[in-house]
C-alpha cells in the first residue's frame, strides 16, 4: 500500500497576551507536543516546518526556521523551512508535510506555528497588519485590522439573506462555551449567554465584542508522520490526512471573486478539491473546525462548505447544528473566538483538536467521530485552506 | 561579576530623522523603485488608470508589467471610471492604523457593469460620520502624501508622492 501521512498528536501553548518571546512560545509548543507524545525525542524529527507571519517584523527573525530548529534541539535532514500563509500558516504546513511524508522525502515532520503579536506599544500591532493585506493598494486605503472588512461582509449577508445579529450570537455563545472547558483558550474559563453577546459594546457595526476573535500570542505544534512511524511513536488510533485543498484567487479587493462580499466561491472551490481528494462529501463530516475569526465567518463557511444551503447559514447555526449534541459540532475546542488567533499557530491548534476527536480523547468529544474537516481563511478572505482527516485512509 | 554600565535612552537611536520604507503606509512610487510609476504620474494629472493587455484585451487592476491572464508584456495604459456606487461601507471610530485620521470610512464600491474593474475597496474622505449611505455616488479624489528621500550616489533626492481615495458626490 502507498505511504499514508497521519497526524500523531501535538500541543498548544496558552493563548493570550503572553509575557514571552516568540522563541519562548515555539519552545512551549514543542514541550506541549512532547507531553502529548511522550515517546517522541528531538532526534526522531527529520523535518521542521515553521509557520509564522509576524516573526520577521515583530521578532526581527527573517530566516526563522533554523533559529527555531536550534531552540528545539531539532537537526532536520529532510526539510527545514518557514512558511507564511498568514492565518492558514500551519494548516498549509500540514499540506506540505503530507506531500513530503507520502512521497518518502520525510518520515517525521513537526509543523509548528507561533506569533508574538503584542508589542511594547500597542499601535505597532495594527500598523504591522497593513503589511498583511495588499500594502500598496488596499492597505493604503486604510485596510489594516480585519473588523471593518468583515463588518461589510456581515452587513451584506444580512441584507441579501436576512441573517440576524441573534443568529450571529449563536456562534459566539457556542464557541465561548466550548472554549470555557479549554484551559489553553485566551478567554478560558469565560462562558457566554445570548443576553451578554447581544448587549456587548459595539466594535464595528454590526459586530459587538463577542463577534470578533481577539489577536493573541501563542504557539502550537503537531507531528505529521508516516503510519509506520506513528505506530512506533504512539499507541493511539491512527488519524489519516485524507484530503486537502487550498485556493487563492486574489491579493486585493479588485479581484474579489464573489458576486458580493457575502459569497465566497473561493472557499467553495477549495472545499470541492478537498472533498474530492478525501473521497467524502459534506454530509460525511462528523466534526469541523472552521475559521471563526468573526461570527459571520462561521455562518458563511458552513454554507460554502456545503453543510447547509447558501444563505441558510444563520438558520443552521441557530438550529443548534454546531453544538455538541447537534448534527455537526463545530469549533469544539472554542475556535478562534475563544482561543484568539496567533495566525501561524491557529491551523495546528485546530488540527490537534480534530486529531483528538478522531482518537476519542477530546474534551468535548463527539461520539463516534470518523471524518473531520478543518478550514482557515487567510487575511481579508484572500485564500482558503481545507484539510480533511479520517480514521481510515483513502483506499 | 561584570559592572553594569548605565545609559538613559528611550526609543531607537537609529531612527533620528531616518526614513524606513517598511514603516511606510504609502507605496514607493518613483521610477527608481517601481516600474508602474506611470500610475502615479497619471494620478497627478487627475487620471485613474491601469494596464490593459494588447494581446488578449484583459484589463488588470492593480496595473502590472505583465498581463495576469496571458503573461504578455505588451500592455497599454487605459483610463478607469472615476465614479462608483457605494454597495456597503464601514466607519471606524477607534483603532485605525496609525496615520489614518478618524473616522476612517471604507466602502465597497461598484463601478458598474461596463467597467473593467467591478469592485474596489475605497477609502471615503471629506465625509463626516453618519453622512454616507448605501447607493451613494462617489468620485475619485487625488491628494499629496508624504515625500520620502532616496540615496542617489552621494546625493539625497526627494520623491514627491500622491495617492487617491473617494468622496461623496453631493
Ligand atoms: Zn493578456
How would you concisely characterize the structure shown here?
The complex is a heterodimer of chains A (395) and B (170). Chain A has helices at 22-36, 55-58, 64-72, 89-102, 123-128, 147-161, 165-179, 194-198, 227-233, 265-278, 295-304, 313-318, 335-339, 343-359, and strands at 5-12, 47-51, 79-83, 108-115, 202-204, 207-208, 218-226, 240-248, 287-289, 371-378, 383-390.
How would you describe this structure in keywords?
A: 395 residues, alpha/beta, Peroxisomal Thiolase, Chain A, domain 1, five-stranded mixed β-sheet, four-stranded mixed β-sheet, 14 helices, 17% strand, B: 170 residues, two-stranded antiparallel ribbon, 1 helix, 5% helix, binds zinc ion
Shape of chain B: globular
Mean pLDDT of chain B: 94
Number of domains of chain B: 1
Spell the H/E element sequence of chain A. EHEHHEHEHHHHEEEHEHEHHHHEE
Task: Output the radius of gyration of chain B.
Answer: 21 Å
Chains forming the largest contact: A-B, 36 and 29 residues
Instruction: Give me the secondary-structure category of chain B.
Output: mainly beta
Q: What integer is the average pLDDT of chain A?
A: 97
Number of strands of chain A: 11
Strand order of the largest sheet of chain B: 5-4-3-6-7
Number of helices of chain B: 1
Q: Kindly provide the radius of gyration of chain A, computed on alpha-carbon positions and rounded to a whole number of angstroms.
A: 19 Å
**CATH class membership of the largest domain in chain A:** Alpha Beta
